[in-house]
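Dear support,

I submitted the protein below through the web form. The confirmation email said the job was done, but the results page showed an empty box. After a refresh the structure appeared. I'm attaching both so you can tell me whether what I see now is the final result or a partial one.
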Amino acid sequence: MPMETSAFKNAMKQFDAAARFMNLTEDQIVMIKEPRRVTVVKLPVRMDDGRIEMFKGYRVQHNVARGPAKGGIRFHPDVTVDEVKALAFWMTYKCAVVNIPMGGGKGGVVVEPSLLSPGELERLARRYFAELMDVFGPDRDVPAPDINTNPQIMAWMMDTYAMHHKDFVPAVITGKPLELGGSLGRMSATAQGMVFCVREAAEKLNIDLKTASVALQGFGNAGSFAVKLLREDGCKIVAISDISGGYYNRGQGISVNEAIDYVREHKSLKNFDKHTDVKKYKDPMQLLEEEVDILIPATLENQITEDNAERVRPRVIAECANGPCTVEADAILEKNNVFIIPDILCNAGGVTVSYLEWVQNRMGYYWEADRVQQDLHRIMVKAFEDVYQTSLRHKVNMRIAAFIIGIERVTRAAEMRGLYT
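What the results page shows now:
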C-alpha cells in the first residue's frame, strides 16, 4: 500500500514548487493559497429501522475570485477534512488552467453508501444539502457528482434546494439527469477530456496510439470510459483494477467491452479472472509498475509515492484521479523521463462540461452532444497547448507549468477585485 501522505500537505507542496518560479509576494500567497471557508456539519438521518444515525459532512470553498466555487460531493467512509481541502484547492487551479470562470470547492460525507437503503441514501443527501443551504447557490457554490454519488443523488439535492427556495433552480448543481437539466456528454466528460490530452501528448512524444499499451488503475465511470475511448484509438489495454483487485493480460490485452459488461452485471471486477482470459495480481498495486506506454491512475490520492515511484516507468502518466502522485514521486518520475499530464489539466473535462451544463441551465437552452463535444475539445486542446508551451518556456515539468498558469490567473483576478475592508 502507498505510504500515508497528507493530501493537503502534498497540494501545498505543489503550490510552493510552482510559486518558486513566479516570485509571488507574501500578500499574493496569502490571498490564494489556503481555503477561504471550511464548513463541517453533523447530519442526523432517520434510518429505516427508526433509529437516528449521525453522519459527518464537509464543504470547502478554496477560492472564488474567478467565479462561484465548483466541485463534487463524494460519499466515502474515508473522507476527511484534509482530503476535501486538497480537492477544493485542486479545483481552483483546474478551473483556472482550462480558463472557465469558476473557483474551487469540494464536499464529502463520511459514509459507506452501499450499506444504506435507497431511502436512507436519499434522506442523507437531502439532509446534507439542507444543512448547507446558506453555502450553495448558482452564483455561490455549484456542486457535482464525485465518488459514490450520481445523477439521482444530484436530483435529490437540487430538489431540496428548490423546495426551500420555492423555485426551479437547475443551475445550483451539475451532473443531473438529462430530464432535469443535465447536459449531454457529462457522463463521459472526464474520460473524454483526458483522452484529448493523451492524444496531444502522444503527438508531442511520437507515440503511436494504434500500438500503445495502457494500464488503468480504477475501473469506475471515468476509468472505464477512458480505456474504452483509448481502445477505439487502437491502444491495447493490458491491465485494469478496481476495489476487488487488479487484472492483467499482457499478451492479447483485455476486452474493455467484456469488462464493462461484467461490471454492469456483477457490480465490480471481483472474480473477473475466473470468467475470462486474464490473471489477477497478488498485490493490485503491481499494476502501477507494468511496462506500458500509458498509465492512468483513476482512483484516490497518493498512489505513486517515493516508495514505489522508481518502479513506475511508463512513457506517460495521465492523471485521471486527483493527486495520485506525491511531490516526492514527481521528482523521481521526472528524473526517469516520465511525462506526466497533471490532474488539474488531465481530468478537467468533467468540470468543463459541468460548466457547460451550468451555462445551459442559466440560458434555459440545451445543446446537442456534438456542440458539447466540440466545446470540450476546443477547451482541452488549448489548455494542453498552453501548459506545454509554458513548460518549454520555463523549462519545468507539466505540473509546475499548469500551476504557473492557474496561479497567474487566480492572482490577477484576486488583485483586480481588491480587498474589501
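Response: this is the final, complete result; the empty box was a page-load delay. The longest helix spans residues 369-394.
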